[in-house]
Design goal:
Number of strands: 21
Oligomer: single chain
Helix content: 25-40%
Largest sheet: 9 strands, mixed
Shape: globular
């Protein structure tokens, strides 16, 4: 079993990449996707968010939505807007956001490696979201959104990729958010083989983002294997679409929290309760935590810096010592009585890309009562949790830049 393999990609035809490329399906709600796709008939959002082509308010999990996505997919194929490559290739994918550059490899990653733990997880999945991705893959007979994988960087892999990216790009598009997405097609058989061998020497890969997509791909593969009497293991359903980036190029931003109420406490009593575990410092401006154990807290019109007593940090536990866990275990659960943030509607999560101004806006508008700004989870922390076969609390990591949908699709033959 190889960890990864090349595949016959389905890509925008020459001249259509900017028309097709779209944000990933899970970063826009239906209204935002509808607005983003307005006047863009070839946007991949018509495939990844097909409810935008149905009546507003349509249940995004309805049969009609999946059928519409398949119809739009077939329409773009028939019109020649997206085309299949001639042979199995790898693809080098570079995303540039401001000064940040990350360059990775688009591959078909092994479902067996995922099932064996050679591609490691760090999050639980939610059944409804996993079911949604299963239905989407089955209806399209394709995997459209790549799973974001990472690995401990290797010098010989860097050299291979640097040699390829020294050439002209095959595709380069600038997204609406200013991120530049570029693609190189690796057509040379010797280079393709060298990449496969290089990754066979890598002990394991880690899912950074895309747990629902990878879990769904594994479920689809299991079902198709069971119903295929001629199963060999070489079928395309035994692999899932992924982009692999080296860990030294991956950027994790903070993933912050806002809570709707103070659990019946006045602001004064709430701060007194917080002070039992954290030192509380009144600050003149926004607080962006600079170290582990530090949290920015915003109440209407006022920022505070919270610092937990180092003696309370369980350094031997890779999950409990995370900042998101420290905040949950010592404040959000015991003081605000939110024990299950996966389902509790009193808490919401704000990606760090939106900045601290968004936290202030949510609180000052009266929508939320308090906001917490966190120090970003480190990629080494993520890998340590995954290596220990543990899972992180929900919404622990926010990766930027986001991977574009539509640049490469993996069809299940």
């Amino acid at each position: 079993m190889t960890l990864i393999r090349p595949f016959i990609g389905l890509r925008p035809a020459t001249g259509f990449a900017s028309d097709v490329t779209a944000p990933p399906y899970d970063v826009l709600n239906s209204d935002e996707a509808r607005e983003r796709a307005d006047g863009r008939p070839w946007s991949f959002l018509h495939i990844s968010k097909p409810e935008i082509d149905l009546a507003p308010g349509t249940d995004s999990y309805s049969d009609a939505v999946y059928a519409k996505g398949a119809e739009n997919f077939a329409r773009m194929l028939a019109a020649g807007i997206i085309e299949r490559d001639a042979a199995p290739y790898y693809y080098i994918y570079r995303a540039v956001m401001g000064d940040h550059i990350q360059t990775g490899l688009v591959v078909a990653a092994s479902v067996q490696a995922y099932n064996n733990g050679d591609i490691r997880r760090h999050e639980f999945t939610r059944p409804q979201k996993e079911d949604d991705r299963v239905r989407q893959i089955d209806t399209l007979n394709a995997q459209t959104g790549p799973v974001f994988l990472t690995y401990r960087h290797q010098g010989h892999v860097d050299v291979l990729i640097d040699e390829i990216t020294a050439n002209e790009t095959d595709v380069s598009v600038s997204a609406d958010d200013g991120v530049q997405h570029s693609l190189w097609v690796v057509r040379q058989p010797d280079t393709v083989d060298a990449i496969t061998r290089a990754f066979d020497d890598i002990e394991r890969l880690y899912i950074a983002d895309g747990h629902h997509r990878s879990a769904a791909a594994a479920r689809v593969a299991a079902r198709r294997r069971e119903t295929n009497p001629d199963h060999t293991g070489d079928e395309s359903y035994n692999y899932f679409l992924a982009v692999i980036f080296p860990d030294n190029q991956v950027q994790i931003l903070d993933y912050n929290r806002v809570v709707r109420d103070l659990n019946g406490l006045s602001q004064e009593d709430f701060i007194k309760e917080v002070s039992k575990t954290f030192s509380v410092e009144v600050c003149n401006g926004p607080v962006k935590p600079e170290q582990v154990g530090e949290v920015g807290m915003y109440l209407p019109g006022q920022w505070y810096r919270l610092t937990i007593d180092p003696q309370r940090i369980p350094h031997g536990d890779p999950v409990a010592r995370l900042d998101v866990s420290l905040l949950a275990d010592h404040l959000i659960d015991p003081i605000l009585s939110i024990s299950n943030p996966r389902v509790d509607t009193r808490i919401d999560f704000v990606g760090g890309i939106r900045g601290l101004d968004e936290l202030e806006r949510r609180v000052d508008s009266g929508d939320m009562a308090v906001a917490f700004a966190l120090h970003p989870t480190g990629l080494d922390e993520l890998m340590t949790v995954a290596d220990a076969d543990r899972v992180m609390p929900p919404k622990s990591t926010w990766f930027e830049p986001k991977l574009a949908d539509g640049l490469v699709t993996h069809v299940l033959d």
